[in-house]
From TrEMBL:
Protein name: Iron complex transport system ATP-binding protein
CDD domains linked: ABC_Iron-Siderophores_B12_Hemin
The keyword Amino-acid biosynthesis is annotated on this UniProt entry: no
Keyword 4Fe-4S: no
All copies of domain ABC transporter, residue ranges: 2-235
UniProt keyword terms in alphabetical order: ATP-binding, Cell membrane, Ion transport, Iron, Iron transport, Membrane, Nucleotide-binding, Transport
Residue ranges crossing the lipid bilayer per the database entry: none
Predominant location: membrane
GO biological process, one term: iron ion transport
An example Gene Ontology molecular-function term: ATP hydrolysis activity
Species of provenance: Roseivivax sediminis
Subcellular location: Cell membrane
Amino acid sequence: MIETQSLCVSLGGAQVVHDIDLTVERGRLTALVGPNGAGKSTLLAALGRLVPPAAGAIRVDGTEIGRIPSPDLARRLAILRQNAVIAPRLSVADLVGFGRYPHSGGRLTAQDHDIVRDCLADLDLTDLAGRYLDTVSGGQRQRALIAMTLAQTPDALLLDEPLNNLDLSHVRRVMAVARARAETGAAVAVVLHDLTVAARHADHIVALKSGRVFASGPPEEVVTPEILSALYDTPLEVHDIAGKRVVLTV
Ligand SMILES: Nc1ncnc2c1ncn2[C@@H]1O[C@H](COP(=O)(O)OP(=O)(O)OP(=O)(O)O)[C@@H](O)[C@H]1O
């Protein structure tokens, strides 16, 4: 579980995340949503200890995040950032293998190879395993990065806009894999822009606006026309279609 208490984060001298109290519980999928610039990526980066808090606390399974030794944190927590930079002359399988580095220190064991193979299969990459990253498509590259993050087998999985560049079939697959990790006990937080996907797949939604929590709760409480229209300052409709919530621009 990751918890924050009165978390504030500043970037470039300006505070962009204000007083966030948040819990990313194990066993459930938490979606972070909100308009561009709301602070979702900054919050996720702080949860992954990539950005220091200006004030407040972050605890991972009860321990203050700053007190966890880096090698230990790397085994326990994995984060996929937006626009991750990767070496082009690396194969898809090698990239996914890097996810095992915190566990194996670069010498992959038979078990590490099994995990890499399973993560490649989960992301529909088996046939592309030997391809260099500069020879695959944008969506295939994105899936390789997700597979690398999963290969870390973390207790806390943080994914920043993992659905970028993905077709609908792979959107479904990635959300299913994220859910499966939650169901095996991981704390999973995913930044999403597609509110229909968030409503369908998340157990808990945290909506950010201007660096603050605007609304939080289960999808049925947060995905309403009133809350979403106010969150995005634009009229939005929410319809129930075949028992699922669908969000539409007006
Ligand atoms: N390096 C930086 N220096 C200064 N300000 C920054 C920096 N990075 C981001 N910001 C600002 O911090 C605020 C929050 O940005 P952040 O990337 O967390 O938003 P976001 O909700 O993830 O947005 P998006 O949906 O567009 O990805 C924005 O106002 C942004 O302009």
